[in-house]
Amino acid sequence: MEQSETGKRDSLTGVWKKKIAEAQIVSGLHRNRAGALFLCDVGDLKKINERYGHQTGDECLKETARILEYMIRSNDILGRYSGGKFLIFMPDCNDIRIASEFCKRIEKRFRANKEKSKFSYSVTAVCAVWQPGDTCRKLFERAGKELEKRKIAFGLSAGREKEEKDSYIKDVRRVRSELIEQIRKPGAYCQDYETFKGIYRFLERGIIRSGQKVCVILITVVNEQGKSLLPDEKDILMERLGEEIGNTLRIGDVYTRYSSSQYLILVIDTTEGQADLIVNRIKDRFLANNRENNILIHNCYELQPARIGELMGQDA
């Protein structure tokens, strides 16, 4: 697709945007005083949105656009008319029988596609052929009325707005069920370092508004001489230390393995003095079963609000 066309194309389906397609139709009517306008409605889109979510509905719209593009000729115009509707304009078609036959072919093509597509949906197609005195608007009005007749006949029109609203409510419920955590046991939240860093920065921003107290603790395992442990000594000890941290901290706190002999901890609603008490409880639990005379050392600081003013001053 050429760069100049990018803004004229529908971002989801790649076909012409409604206004661009309408401008081309107006130009074609002025030149030829002829043409047939088709409206194609993805009638089961709301059901797909309700059952599978709007991402799946979007995939159906993309598929519909690809199929319609395959069915038209190079000089025909294909555009996205609205949510689940597409428009086609054939500038050299002025025979209602040919136009009606093309509508049947479209509907038949999507009925056949039900067997191949993962999600079953149908497309209703109607047409309006240019008559003397017709404008682009009149063509759309006639095609729109014909589409409403078809939808009423198939019971598709009643309650549509309510159903669309209900489908978005179901999306919210689905998002909630996907994101909610099923907590298996009480204790702190153990995460990888990159996730920990994201939580840290989120809290750093949040305390600008909330004023919440958050402390950061770095706990290091060393031997009785204060030196780093040998590699083969660390794994079992660090695994046990991680269990003690998780069991000692509260359910809203977060910790991560920072290095081969260190853990980083975020404790919420806690001052530095309270953080020292928390670490002492961790030490007591860890050292109670420690035969190797290893010790824990820790450093602690209170999380400060993100340095927006300072950084802006540096940029200036």
Give short descriptive properties of this protein:
single chain; 316 residues; alpha+beta; Alpha-Beta Plaits; 2 domains; five-stranded mixed β-sheet; four-stranded antiparallel β-sheet; 10 helices; 50% helix
What does this structure look like?
The mean pLDDT is 83. The chain is elongated. Helix 2 (45-52) packs antiparallel against helix 3 and helix 8 (231-248) crosses helix 9. The longest helix has 20 residues, at 160-179. The strands form 2 sheets. Strands 5-7-8-6-9 form a 5-stranded mixed sheet, with helices on both faces. A 4-stranded antiparallel sheet has the order 2-3-1-4, with helices on both faces. The chain has 2 domains: 3-176, Reverse transcriptase/Diguanylate cyclase domain (Alpha-Beta Plaits, 2-Layer Sandwich), CATH 3.30.70; 189-306, 2-Layer Sandwich (Alpha-Beta Plaits), CATH 3.30.70. A hairpin with a 2-residue loop joins strand 7 (254-259) and strand 8. With 316 residues, the chain is α+β, with helices and mostly antiparallel strands. The chain has helices spanning 18-32, 45-52, 54-71, 96-113, 136-153, 160-179, 193-210, 231-248, 272-288, 308-315, and strands at residues 36-42, 77-82, 85-90, 123-129, 189-190, 214-222, 254-259, 262-268, 295-302. The chain is built from 10 helices and 9 strands.
